[in-house]
Inverse folding.
């Protein structure tokens, strides 16, 4: 009895999705343009007994908010924390420099995690100004930094 109901639900869901795609119109010219850039992984040691792993992230710049970049970090760590029940953690810092204007700054977050990615914090925004922005991700523990460029509206 369960299998026919399940198949029927799958079929209905497929028809609804097909209808949504068939009736959607092309993007309007006035829609927001977003630029998503992934921050390459930084391999790092973390606080704890033999804790280590990687921190990565994502940035997004939108034409509706020129000069701003939104960023979110996430981490995957293995090892044991020095505090039972607490995940491995590290302080991560994003160093940015606007190559076009010379403006520069930093943003830090305490990042913790286990074998599954955990976001460091809710989205944060960096007021970098418009132009090409170079971003470097470091930590307060031994690490291999990563660098990427973002074109900000």
């Amino acid at each position: 009895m369960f299998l026919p109901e399940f198949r029927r639900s799958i079929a209905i869901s497929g028809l609804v999705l097909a209808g949504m795609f068939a009736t959607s119109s092309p993007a309007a010219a006035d829609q927001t343009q977003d630029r998503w850039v992934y921050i390459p992984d930084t391999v790092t040691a973390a606080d704890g007994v033999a804790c280590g792993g990687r921190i990565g992230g994502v940035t997004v710049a939108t034409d509706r908010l020129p000069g701003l970049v939104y960023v979110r970090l996430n981490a995957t760590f293995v090892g044991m924390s020095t505090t039972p029940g607490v995940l491995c953690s590290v302080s991560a810092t994003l160093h940015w420099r606007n190559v076009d204007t010379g403006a520069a700054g930093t943003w830090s977050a305490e990042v913790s995690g286990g074998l599954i990615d955990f976001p460091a914090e809710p989205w944060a925004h960096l007021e970098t100004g418009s132009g090409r922005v170079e971003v470097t991700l470091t930590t307060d523990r031994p690490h291999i930094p990563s660098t990427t460029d973002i074109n900000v509206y």
